Amino acid sequence: MKNQIKFVQGNEACVEAALYAGLDFFAGYPITPSTEIAEHMAVRLPQIGGRFLQMEDEIASLCAIIGASLTGNKVMTATSGPGFSLMQEALGYAIMTEIPCVIVNVQRGGPSTGLPTHASQGDINQARWGTHGDHAIIALTASNHQDLFDITVEAFNLAETYRTPVILMLDEITGHMRERLHIPKPGKIPIVSRLKTSVKQGVDYHPYLPREDGRLPMSDFGGIHRYNVTGLFHDMWGFPTDNPQIVHGLLRHLLDKIGNNVHLIAKYKEYYLEDATTILVSYGSSARSALHLVNNRRNRGERLGLLELQTLWPFPYGIVREKCANARHVLVVEMNMGQILREVKIAVEDPEKVFLANRIDGMFITPTDIRNILRLIQGKGV
Amino acid sequence: MGKPKLKKLHIRQEWCKGCGICIHFCPKKVLELDDKDKAFAARPQDCICCKLCELRCPDLAIDVEAEDE
Amino acid sequence: MEKCRIVMSGSGGQGVITASVILAEAAVIFEGLIAVQSQAYGPEARGGAARSDVIISDSEIHFPKVTQPNVLVCLTQTAYNKFFPIIRPGGLLLTDTRYVTTERKVDAKQIELPMYNQVMEKIGNPVVLNICMLGALISLRNIVKPESILKILEERLPANSIQMNRNALELGISLGENLK
Amino acid sequence: MAIKDYLRERFFPHMWCPGCGHGTVLNCMLRAIENLALEKNDIVMVSGIGCSARISGYVDFHTLHTIHGRALAFATGVKMSRPDLNLIVPMGDGDALAIGGNHFIHAARRNIDITAIIMNNRIYGMTGGQFSPLTGYGKLATTAPYTNIDHAFDTVSLAIAAGASFVARTTTYHARQMTDIIQKAIQHKGFSVVEVLTQCPTYFGRKNKEGSAAEMMENYKNITTPIGSKKSQENPELIERGIFVEKEMPEYCSEYKKIIQKAVKGK
Question: Which fold would CATH assign to domain A268-377?
Answer without folding.
Answer: Rossmann fold (3.40.50)
